[in-house]
Amino acid sequence: MPTAVDIFCGSGGVTQGLRSARWRVLAACDNDPVATATYRANHPRTKLVDGDIRLDDTIDRIASAVRGRAVDLLVICAPCQPFSSQNRHRGDDEREQLIVRALAVAERLKPAMVFFENVPGLATPTYASIVAQVRTKLDELGYVVSDPLLRDAADFGVPQRRRRCIMLAARTRDAVDTFVSLDMTMPRKTVFRAIADLERLESGQASAEDALHRARTHQSIAVERLRHIPADGGSRSSLPAHLELRCHVGKPRSFSDVYGRMAWQDVAPTLTTGCTDITRGRFAHPEQHRAITLREAARLQSFPNDYEFRGNDSDIARQIGNAVPPEMIKAFVPAFRAALKASQR
Ligand SMILES: C[S@@+](CC[C@H](N)C(=O)[O-])C[C@H]1O[C@@H](n2cnc3c(N)ncnc32)[C@H](O)[C@@H]1O
């Protein structure tokens, strides 16, 4: 069974994807106590190091957890916020360095391959120096590194538009080229396929069977607005003047997704940590007068129904919004395997 180590594991999206493709995740690390509680509940056989990657002690604990076993893949999904277009401290956020710091784990464990996933912002000129630092360090450690590659989770079986920057480092050029050239895309999965079977809920109602399928309680004015927004992809541009939000009057283009509905036959928009809040994006149900529930968000991120989340509702929305969709990682597995094989030739 191929082996992996998952750094910045969060609630475990990457680990879930690898495990569902029969990889063994030997160790994982994160410093968020709620996310690690979720991780532990779902992946009890992985040694979880709850520590700050900036500390030498954390690197030592990860190495002890691996116990000298060979690691095929080290996954580094560093926090995206520093590289996001929404970040007001762009280029001056100390979290930018976490991705470089995490390479200390590669230095210790000497994995066959290192995989990075982040937001497309990482591939922009603003962060060229961070990518250069990553490349230089990996080069010193004897790896060949791919260019940053832009991919969309929607092309890998995830019912969500989620553009990401990925990179692979491996011991040989042949292994990297094998990974880059393998077509791993699959047909798109729609919002309809992902959530249409779930119980109908009104604002404030909860499913008796599924603790994650509970609708937020919206104010009556919010429900009234949603009633005026056309089903299946409608947006706030359809609101009559008396229901327009005061902050939006005369600004049809700014925050145009706010109060928007998802479309049944499309993929969902990118889920964020505010994914169950209609004031933070196109997060209204395609036809019901409410925001999507945590269950619908988890499905749109491709988590299986039996995945257990810890924490309160906003903790769970944050974990779902921050996660790497498990099905995207699972879709990459054939390319990881092929690259691993190529690196051993
Ligand atoms: C993009 S999320 C990871 C998502 C996760 N890989 C998944 O598959 O669901 C980034 C994670 O980095 C963690 N993190 C941020 N700073 C950290 C640090 N200094 N040390 C360890 N983990 C950190 C956060 O708690 C968060 O869970």
UniProtKB/TrEMBL annotation:
The active site is at 80. GO terms for molecular function: DNA (cytosine-5-)-methyltransferase activity; DNA binding. It holds the Pfam family DNA_methylase. GO terms for biological process: DNA restriction-modification system; methylation; negative regulation of gene expression via chromosomal CpG island methylation. Its EC number is 2.1.1.37. It catalyses: a 2'-deoxycytidine in DNA + S-adenosyl-L-methionine = a 5-methyl-2'-deoxycytidine in DNA + S-adenosyl-L-homocysteine + H(+). The keyword Methyltransferase applies. The keyword Methyltransferase applies. Keywords: Methyltransferase, Restriction system, S-adenosyl-L-methionine, Transferase. InterPro entries: C5-Methyltransferase (IPR050390), C5_DNA_meth_AS (IPR018117), C5_MeTfrase (IPR001525), SAM-dependent_MTases_sf (IPR029063). Belongs to the class I-like SAM-binding methyltransferase superfamily. C5-methyltransferase family. NCBIfam families: dcm. This is Cytosine-specific methyltransferase.
